């Protein structure tokens, strides 16, 4: 408050003013004399007059300043009184609101009966600040907004009128009369309630007995405690003497006066005793563990329930608890007949009601005499108290909520729900009666609660055109408001009154799923979708499922007769049209706001349902704790009815209902709500409760006594022991009673489960546990000619295999991913990130092929670069081999085997007139394996095959190692002629697990594999690869892979299908992926239901009676020279065979006619000398001495005895001998050079000279060149023309320093001439400048041949041991 204005200070005296004038006059006269003394005249008089007037004005002004300004004081007084008037208005408004608030918080005890049926019932909880606070009187209280007097000067300095006004204002408004006065009873262990004072106090003691004011106050206190505190939080006990028992008999109706667990013959034990000892026996389990009263501050009570005990004339002898000094924790005694001690402790309070005025005395009371009364004491008549108790008698708290606190008080839990819906006994529902056809006005209409007058409040889901409230609605309720319970009530009520052919549900709970827990057993439930918050990927799946249902209903209406709506469809069905039931569909989505926050695009589905749901019979009910109007763009106009439980803010209430009333709903108990349909007035209701324990009628009745007939007993406060029950024969007792403890929801769901037709399932379970092969292929059994195979004959040899399950929520079904390998999908790519199940997918493919084809129909060859997952397939009879990354020879031979087969089939198809691979498969299947135009010619490698087959068992290479039969070489390895259609192979699958690793480690094989992929499908050869990324597959190669399986990728942006679909693949689910259409898939396990993958492989192998797939023929470690000795090309005798090739195990020939020289590099004992020895032997045996002669340069004498015939010109073991021999050869070559006389025809035919071919074999060339010279230098001019003059230089050198040695003139010239080079074993770091071909560690005799046509062909040199 502002301070009143102060009086102005007193003005100056007249003498002080005159003293101020003297200086002014003196100055004026002096100035006038100054001007007059100079010239005089008129000018001086004018100046003097001006100064005179100035002086006179100053005198007048100074005289006026000293007088007080009366007008200013009047204005200040008026302003201050206006200030007090404004404060008076505000204070009166505060008083009005304070009075309303206190009377609302602490109503008159005589009006408590009306609060029993209001939402205020049992609103105070142990954690609330007003728990245990009770009104005791009505009297003056300080203004809620304190009036603080301003700091002013002494009263004599203040303006009198305003100061008096301030005093009267403070006296009038600082204290407000007639307000409720409350006491926190839980802060005191004992309250003495008295009505008699000493005679010297001058008070009339008043009436005694039941009408005593003290007992009236006690009744008022107990009534307030019972109305505003729940029985689970507060108990009331009475300890009264026999002569006063009747005064407190009314407490037997209070649910707070009943023992929580103890019972007697009348039911729960009444907390009443005539002695303290008797009452303590009733309360022993509630008191024994409590400590002493410690005076805890409000809101910190730790012991529940809080107990209030009334002592009225009872005997306290023998008391162990109630008579404890200082009191018991959580217990307050209201003592009505004992005088308080003269010195009160801090835990005691005295309430004196003498004369109807209430006086309080406590340890803090000051002064020698009694304090003045604080107001008029409250009182309640016995009849009024009993009326309140009887209204409370049937009420109980429903059930503990999730936090262990009751949610809402109702009559016997759920008892009003069966009554509202007319269900009868929930434990014996007449489902046929409840599901009987209902009039259209009652269809989709149920009661969800009761209104203020107890009338049922209905929810009608039909649209407004059918006198309904729907079809769509909104439900908003804050935490603890009963939102989930109301949703359960709505769903259960509709399910109990409508059959599953009339109504279906889609129950969606974004968080957890507790809202609709256990309701999925209802036959009405078409989809139960929960816990979406932890698996957001399921939201998109739910979108597809519900969209699919919209499409399904539209198609159904169209196909049934182009009906415009479900209403027309139902009319036609009712008229006798043979139409299947099309039930209405209610979609209930709880926590839709959080769903839209996580997936904003989901609103489009809601809008679509709002737009077309009416005609399709689909109803939408959205529920959430909070409401954000901006998120319902386009949908709010479709929400016809809106239900608002208690909201967090008034803004939310206005947004939902248009009024702020929902914010004003009580926090406790829950279940109170408002419903609004369109622009109609808001209807208030109290929702029914189905989640609490259901207690059958009579469950508290004691066991029968006497002859088994029930006895009528008087209900009172006295304890009635339970009589001993009479044994009953179980056989004669009939059916046993259902077990206790189930909720009404569980009971009704159990009664409805199993009735009616199950709803059409909109939501199939997400892909979870993988299926096995027999789930897709059907039964598997042993066939006499096919071994362990599927029993479905259509799959035998069809090259159609299922490999995965496809989740198709839009079509509401599960599909199977079939690979049709007989067409464009013959090549397969499986791409997925680490641990995504690529290898298992390949095993599934191979296992499926094995169960649908015989080893004669398909053969599988595996390159396992993925960690050994394919090794378990090695025992399958269909698998010809499994090569790992470290099996270098096996990897190369596997690729070479397939490449050779491709080339052989290309020739065979052309020769046999096979149009395509389908024609080939048909001929093999029908047994027509001969070419109509028979050809008896054999493979060009037949001679070689015969040579190989002649190798004996004791040789280094056995017949089986070279192919297993004695026919021609090549991929077939058999003796089948070109005219034979069947080459002994079926469809061949080359499975490569880990394509990037193969490209990195076997770069030279990539072109071969790309060629196989490009041409293989036309000849029944399939390539199956796996990779971690699509980018690992070159674009051209990727285009050849017609069947693509995309598993989970490391980076969804790498997807070739859809980045969004790839991102939706679960990260911790191997085998999950997407199809080419973006649908989710789950690969099948490579096993059957009764076995694991290893057992399936064993079972297939054991059941197959025929021959297995041909194994991969590996390049032998040693090839005897005898195996190639007879190999020759009659048309070109200079093509000398040096070994066999890895690619086809065929002979390797060096054509010295076109490429006259040969270089070989290798480390020690790698086969260099063996190569020269074999060439020397081949020359000696193929040519006569007149046709070919040999010069050996061998400083280490490794070739001694290699040539014993006349073919040997000379053997140079040193520099001098080598120089002589080379000089003679050079002289001989000089004479062969063409002269000018040689004609063009001679040059063309090379006939200008005659004589033998000259072969110069140089071993260990690194020893030949020295610092003094190179004996071979004379041959340097003739190397370029060697082919024309019959010169052949064959040089072997150690691999060490070979890179530098290539700059030596002889070797450099040979390399420039592109002479064939053999790289035997050597150090990889040695670089010869041959591109990607480098030295590597190889076994003896193994080499890479580099020619103009071959870039690193791996060969095995024939072993020609020394003589």
UniProtKB/TrEMBL annotation:
<dbReference type="GO" id="GO:0005524">
    <property type="term" value="F:ATP binding"/>
</dbReference>
<dbReference type="InterPro" id="IPR003593">
    <property type="entry name" value="AAA+_ATPase"/>
</dbReference>
<dbReference type="GO" id="GO:0005886">
    <property type="term" value="C:plasma membrane"/>
</dbReference>
<keyword id="KW-1003">Cell membrane</keyword>
<keyword id="KW-0067">ATP-binding</keyword>
<feature type="binding site">
    <location>
        <begin position="1162"/>
        <end position="1169"/>
    </location>
    <ligand>
        <name>ATP</name>
    </ligand>
</feature>
<keyword id="KW-0812">Transmembrane</keyword>
<dbReference type="GO" id="GO:0003677">
    <property type="term" value="F:DNA binding"/>
</dbReference>
<keyword id="KW-0175">Coiled coil</keyword>
<keyword id="KW-1133">Transmembrane helix</keyword>
<feature type="binding site">
    <location>
        <begin position="832"/>
        <end position="839"/>
    </location>
    <ligand>
        <name>ATP</name>
    </ligand>
</feature>
<feature type="domain" description="FtsK">
    <location>
        <begin position="813"/>
        <end position="1056"/>
    </location>
</feature>
<feature type="coiled-coil region">
    <location>
        <begin position="269"/>
        <end position="296"/>
    </location>
</feature>
<keyword id="KW-0547">Nucleotide-binding</keyword>
<feature type="binding site">
    <location>
        <begin position="477"/>
        <end position="484"/>
    </location>
    <ligand>
        <name>ATP</name>
    </ligand>
</feature>
<keyword id="KW-0472">Membrane</keyword>
<feature type="region of interest" description="Disordered">
    <location>
        <begin position="359"/>
        <end position="378"/>
    </location>
</feature>
<dbReference type="InterPro" id="IPR050206">
    <property type="entry name" value="FtsK/SpoIIIE/SftA"/>
</dbReference>
<dbReference type="Pfam" id="PF01580">
    <property type="entry name" value="FtsK_SpoIIIE"/>
</dbReference>
<dbReference type="InterPro" id="IPR023836">
    <property type="entry name" value="EccCa-like_Actinobacteria"/>
</dbReference>
<dbReference type="InterPro" id="IPR027417">
    <property type="entry name" value="P-loop_NTPase"/>
</dbReference>
<feature type="transmembrane region" description="Helical">
    <location>
        <begin position="43"/>
        <end position="65"/>
    </location>
</feature>
<protein>
    <recommendedName>
        <fullName>FtsK domain-containing protein</fullName>
    </recommendedName>
</protein>
<feature type="domain" description="FtsK">
    <location>
        <begin position="454"/>
        <end position="654"/>
    </location>
</feature>
<feature type="transmembrane region" description="Helical">
    <location>
        <begin position="15"/>
        <end position="36"/>
    </location>
</feature>
<dbReference type="InterPro" id="IPR002543">
    <property type="entry name" value="FtsK_dom"/>
</dbReference>
<keyword id="KW-0677">Repeat</keyword>
<feature type="domain" description="FtsK">
    <location>
        <begin position="1145"/>
        <end position="1328"/>
    </location>
</feature>
<dbReference type="InterPro" id="IPR023837">
    <property type="entry name" value="EccCb-like_Actinobacteria"/>
</dbReference>
């Amino acid at each position: 408050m502002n301070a009143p204005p102060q009086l102005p200070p007193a003005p100056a005296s007249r003498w002080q003013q005159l003293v101020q004038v003297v200086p002014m006059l003196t100055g004026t006269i002096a100035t006038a004399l100054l001007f007059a003394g100079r010239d005089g005249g008129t000018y001086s008089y004018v100046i003097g007059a001006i100064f005179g007037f100035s002086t006179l004005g100053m005198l007048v002004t100074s005289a006026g300043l000293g007088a007080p300004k009366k007008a200013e004081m009047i204005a200040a007084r008026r302003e201050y009184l206006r200030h007090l008037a404004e404060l008076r208005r505000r204070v009166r408004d505060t008083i009005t609101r304070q009075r309303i608030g206190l009377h609302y918080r602490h109503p008159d005890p005589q009006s408590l009966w009306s609060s029993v049926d209001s939402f205020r019932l049992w609103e105070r909880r142990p954690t609330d600040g007003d728990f245990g606070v009770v009104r005791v009187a009505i009297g003056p209280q300080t203004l809620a907004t304190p009036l603080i007097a301003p700091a002013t000067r002494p009263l004599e300095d203040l303006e009198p009128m305003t100061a008096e006004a301030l005093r009267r204002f403070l006296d009038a408004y600082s204290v407000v009369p007639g307000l409720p006065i409350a006491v926190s009873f839980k802060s005191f262990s004992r309250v003495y309630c008295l009505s008699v004072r000493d005679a010297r106090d001058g008070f009339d003691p008043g009436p005694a007995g039941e009408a005593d004011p003290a007992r009236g106050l006690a009744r008022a206190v107990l009534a307030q405690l019972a109305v505003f505190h729940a029985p689970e939080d507060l108990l009331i006990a009475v300890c009264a003497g026999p002569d006063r028992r009747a005064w407190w008999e009314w407490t037997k109706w209070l649910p707070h006066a009943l023992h929580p667990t103890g019972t007697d013959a009348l039911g729960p034990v009444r907390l009443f005793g005539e002695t303290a000892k008797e009452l303590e026996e009733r309360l022993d389990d509630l008191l024994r563990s409590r400590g002493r009263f410690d005076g805890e501050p409000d809101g910190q009570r730790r012991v529940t329930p809080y107990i209030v005990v009334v002592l009225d004339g009872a005997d306290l002898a023998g008391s162990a608890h109630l008579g404890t000094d200082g009191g018991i924790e959580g217990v307050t005694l209201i003592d009505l007949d004992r005088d308080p001690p003269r010195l009160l402790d801090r835990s005691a309070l005295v309430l004196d009601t003498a004369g109807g005025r209430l006086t309080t005395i406590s340890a803090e009371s000051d002064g020698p005499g009694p304090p003045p009364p604080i107001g008029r004491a409250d009182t309640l008549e016995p009849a009024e108290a009993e009326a309140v108790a009887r209204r409370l008698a049937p009420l109980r708290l429903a059930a503990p909520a999730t936090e262990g606190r009751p949610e809402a008080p109702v009559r016997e839990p759920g008892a009003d729900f069966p009554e509202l819906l007319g269900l009868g006994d929930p434990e014996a529902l007449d489902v046929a009666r409840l599901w009987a056809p209902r009039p259209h006005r009652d269809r989709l209409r149920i009661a969800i609660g009761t209104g203020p007058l107890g009338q049922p409040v209905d929810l009608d889901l039909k649209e407004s055109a059918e006198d309904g409230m729907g079809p769509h609605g909104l439900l908003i309720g804050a935490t603890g408001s009963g939102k989930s319970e109301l949703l359960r009530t709505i769903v259960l009520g509709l399910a109990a009154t409508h059959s599953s052919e009339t109504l279906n549900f889609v129950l969606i709970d974004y968080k957890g799923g507790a809202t609709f827990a256990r309701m999925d057993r209802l036959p009405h439930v078409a989809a139960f979708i929960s816990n979406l918050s932890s698996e957001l990927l399921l939201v998109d799946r739910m979108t597809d499922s519900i969209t699919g249902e919209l499409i399904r209903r539209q198609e159904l209406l169209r196909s049934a007769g182009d009906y415009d709506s479900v209403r027309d469809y139902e009319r036609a069905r009712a008229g006798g049209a043979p139409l299947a039931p099309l039930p209405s569909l209610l979609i209930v989505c709880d926590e839709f706001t959080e769903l839209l926050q996580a997936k904003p695009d989901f609103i489009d589905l809601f809008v679509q349902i709002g737009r077309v749901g009416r005609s399709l019979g689909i109803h939408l009910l959205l529920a959430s704790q909070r409401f954000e109007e901006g998120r319902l763009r386009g949908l709010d106009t479709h929400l016809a009815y809106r239900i608002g439980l208690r909201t967090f803010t008034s803004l939310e209430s206005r947004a939902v209902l248009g009024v702020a009333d929902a914010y004003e709903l009580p926090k406790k108990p829950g279940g109170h709500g408002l419903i609004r349909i369109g622009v109609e007035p808001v209807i208030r209701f109290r929702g029914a409760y189905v989640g609490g324990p259901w207690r059958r009628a009579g469950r508290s009745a004691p066991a029968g006594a006497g002859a088994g007939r029930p006895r009528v007993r008087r209900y009172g406060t006295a304890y009635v022991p339970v009589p001993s029950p009479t044994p009953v024969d179980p056989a004669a007792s009939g059916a046993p009673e259902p077990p206790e403890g189930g909720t009404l929801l569980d009971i009704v769901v159990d009664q409805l489960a199993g009735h009616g037709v199950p709803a059409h399932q909109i939501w199939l379970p997400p892909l979870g546990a993988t299926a096995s092969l027999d789930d897709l292929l059907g039964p598997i059994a042993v066939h006499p000619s096919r071994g362990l195979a599927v029993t479905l004959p259509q799959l035998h040899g069809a090259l159609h295999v299922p490999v995965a399950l496809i989740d198709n929520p839009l079509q509401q079904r599960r599909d199977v991913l079939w690979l049709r390998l007989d067409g464009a999908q013959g090549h397969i790519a499986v791409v997925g990130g680490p641990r995504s199940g690529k290898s298992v997918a390949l095993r599934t493919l191979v296992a499926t092929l094995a169960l649908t084809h015989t080893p004669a129909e398909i053969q599988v060859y595996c390159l396992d670069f993925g960690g050994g997952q394919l090794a378990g397939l090695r025992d399958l009879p269909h698998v010809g081999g499994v090569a790992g990354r470290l099996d270098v020879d096996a990897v190369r031979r596997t690729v070479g085997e397939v490449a050779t087969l491709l080339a052989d089939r290309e020739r065979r198809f052309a020769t046999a007139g096979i149009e395509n691979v389908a024609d080939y498969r048909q001929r093999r299947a029908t047994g027509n394996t001969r070419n109509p135009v028979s050809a008896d010619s054999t493979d060009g490698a037949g001679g070689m095959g015969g040579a190989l087959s002649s190798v004996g068992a004791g040789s280094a290479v056995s017949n089986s190692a070279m192919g297993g039969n004695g026919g021609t070489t090549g991929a077939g390895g058999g003796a089948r002629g070109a005219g034979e259609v069947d080459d002994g192979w079926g469809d061949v699958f080359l499975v490569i697990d880990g394509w990037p690793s193969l490209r990195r480690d076997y770069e030279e094989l990539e072109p071969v594999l790309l060629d196989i992929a490009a041409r293989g499908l036309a000849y029944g050869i399939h390539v199956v690869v796996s990779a971690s990324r699509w980018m690992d597959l070159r674009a051209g190669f990727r285009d050849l892979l017609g069947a693509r399986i995309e598993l989970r990728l490391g980076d969804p942006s790498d997807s070739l299908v859809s980045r969004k679909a790839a991102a939706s693949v679960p990260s911790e689910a191997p085998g999950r992926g997407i199809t080419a259409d973006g649908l989710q898939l789950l690969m099948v396990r490579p096993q059957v239901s009764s076995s694991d993958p290893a057992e399936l492989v064993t079972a297939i192998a054991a059941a197959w009676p025929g021959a297995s797939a041909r194994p991969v023929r590996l390049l032998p470690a040693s090839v005897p020279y005898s195996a190639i000795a007879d190999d020759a090309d009659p048309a070109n005798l200079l093509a000398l065979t040096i070994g066999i090739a890895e690619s086809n195990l065929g002979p390797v020939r060096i054509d010295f006619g076109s490429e006259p020289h040969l270089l070989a590099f290798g480390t020690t004992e790698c086969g260099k000398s063996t190569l020269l020895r074999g060439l020397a032997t081949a020359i000696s045996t193929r040519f006569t001495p007149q046709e070919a002669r040999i010069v050996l340069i061998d400083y280490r004498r490794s070739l001694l005895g290699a040539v014993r015939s006349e073919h040997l010109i000379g053997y140079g073991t040193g520099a001098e001998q080598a120089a002589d021999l080379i000089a003679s050869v050079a002289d001989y070559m000089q004479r062969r050079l063409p002269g000018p006389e040689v004609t063009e025809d001679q040059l063309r035919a090379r006939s200008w000279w005659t004589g033998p071919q000259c072969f110069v074999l140089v071993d260990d060339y690194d020893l030949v060149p020295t610092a003094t010279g190179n004996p071979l230098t004379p041959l340097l001019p003739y190397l370029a023309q060697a082919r024309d003059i019959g010169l052949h230089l064959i040089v072997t050198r150690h691999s060490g320093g070979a890179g530098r040695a290539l700059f030596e003139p002889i070797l450099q010239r040979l390399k420039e001439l592109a002479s064939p080079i053999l790289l035997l074993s050597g150090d990889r770091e040695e670089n010869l400048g041959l591109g990607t071909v480098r030295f590597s560690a190889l076994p003896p005799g193994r080499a890479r041949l580099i020619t103009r046509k071959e870039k690193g062909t791996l060969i095995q040199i024939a072993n020609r041991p020394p003589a």
